């Protein structure tokens, strides 16, 4: 037996091993539940892994920094996974090329709606100016949104929170909403998911249908570009 | 497998370097995605490129492996929200409602535009 019962905890809390293991195991469990419910929208694995791990951290008084020291190995793979989207895109290139016009028009309409709606709604709700600015880029991936928020002198960490919340809510809402509209075109459904809810929406789209995933990845990639130009413009025109 | 992962990382590395070097408003990995796509298309045209990871579905298999658990990769960033609850404390409910409404409006605007344009084009073709 060790002299100090805390020495094991001290070792574990300082090594990346513990939180990497927790991240993988909790995700494996939430993903198994999602599979068992036949990918029910409310069984979203990101949502449930988020609060379960969050509760672990709060209960053990672990800072996000020490958690991230372990979880960064998983986080790092986001970049290579984005590159890997080239493969399903390549395999479905004929359908993609034949849909280029609807994609471009939907990209413009969707990007403008994403930015304008959140700015107007936030103003209507009477949120303070710096919060409105931080919410504006919420439909693009966290890295890009934080960059946009920084360039507006808004709060990048609030922007990141808005991005994650948008992604999770979008991934939950998209399937029931689309079913209600009666639209069965998975190109259009996937494109909307990626545009409104970036990578988390794309992960959801791949769960539902491969074509939806491909179009979602395209929307996510190009929305990052359009939104970078759009947010500064919209903020100048719309924010008092 | 290793060479395929290496190729994916190389595409990302070049993407990041170009984006940073030219100050482009685009995530580096998105440029890497375009680069890998160009490589795959070029391989079909030029037989000499069908080498290493670009042969026998090498990079294809590795990519699908990475994408199989795309949701997992968002977990570390998502947990950041739980640690920033104080940020949401003052305006939390308003922020969540605003984001939820906006995401619904955005989904509908995008999907309806896509369908509308796609239908208009089909009518034009039929004529």
Structure description:
- The complex is a heterodimer of chains A (about 240) and B (about 130).
- Chain A is mainly alpha-helical and about 240 residues long.
- Chain A has helices spanning about 5-15, 15-35, 45-60, 65-75, 80-85, 85-90, 95-100, 100-125, 130-135, 140-150, 155-180, 185-210, 210-240.
- Chain A has two domains: about 1-75, no CATH class; about 80-240, no CATH class.
- In chain A, helix 2 (about 15-35) runs antiparallel to helix 3.
- Chain B has about 130 residues and is mainly alpha-helical.
- Chain B folds into two domains: about 1-70, no CATH class; about 75-125.
- Helices cover about 75% and strands about 0% of the residues of chain B.
- Chain B contains six helices and no strands.
- Chain B has helices at about 1-20, 30-45, 60-65, 75-85, 85-90, 90-125.
- Chain B is extended, with a radius of gyration of 21 Å.
- At the A-B interface, helix 2, helix 3, helix 4, helix 5 and helix 6 of A face helix 1, helix 2, helix 3, helix 4 and helix 6 of B.
């Amino acid at each position: 037996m060790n002299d100090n019962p805390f020495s094991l905890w001290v070792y574990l809390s300082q090594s990346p091993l513990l939180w990497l293991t927790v991240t993988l195991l909790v995700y494996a469990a939430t993903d198994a539940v999602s599979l068992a419910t036949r990918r029910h929208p409310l069984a979203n694995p990101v949502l449930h892994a988020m609060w379960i791990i969050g509760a672990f951290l709060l209960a053990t008084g672990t800072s996000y920094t020490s958690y991230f020291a372990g979880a960064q190995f998983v986080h790092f793979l986001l970049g290579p996974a984005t590159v890997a989207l080239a493969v399903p895109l390549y395999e479905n290139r004929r359908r993609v090329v034949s849909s280029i016009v609807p994609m471009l028009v939907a990209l413009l309409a969707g990007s403008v709606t994403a930015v304008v709606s959140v700015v107007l709604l936030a103003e209507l709700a009477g949120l303070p100016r710096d919060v409105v600015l931080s919410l504006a880029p919420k439909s693009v991936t966290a890295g890009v949104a934080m960059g946009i928020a920084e360039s507006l002198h808004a709060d990048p960490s609030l922007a990141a929170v808005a991005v994650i919340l948008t992604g999770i809510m979008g991934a939950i809402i998209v399937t029931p909403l689309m079913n209600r509209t009666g639209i069965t075109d998975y190109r259009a459904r996937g494109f909307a998911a990626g545009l409104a809810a970036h990578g988390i929406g794309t992960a959801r789209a791949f769960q539902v249908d491969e074509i939806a995933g491909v179009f979602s990845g395209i929307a996510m990639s190009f929305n990052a570009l359009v939104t970078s130009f759009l947010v500064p413009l919209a903020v100048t025109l719309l924010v008092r | 497998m290793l060479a395929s992962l290496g190729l994916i990382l190389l595409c990302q590395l070049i993407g990041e370097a170009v984006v940073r070097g030219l100050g482009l408003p685009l995530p580096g990995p998105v440029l890497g995605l375009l680069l890998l796509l160009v490589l795959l298309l070029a391989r079909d045209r030029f037989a000499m490129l069908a080498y290493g990871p670009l042969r026998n579905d090498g990079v294809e298999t590795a990519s699908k492996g990475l994408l199989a658990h795309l949701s997992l990769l968002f977990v570390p960033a998502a947990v950041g929200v739980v640690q920033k609850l104080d940020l949401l404390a003052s305006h939390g409910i308003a922020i969540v409602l605003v984001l939820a409404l906006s995401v619904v409006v955005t989904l509908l605007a995008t999907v309806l535009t896509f369908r509308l344009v796609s239908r208009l084009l089909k009518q034009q073709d039929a004529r």
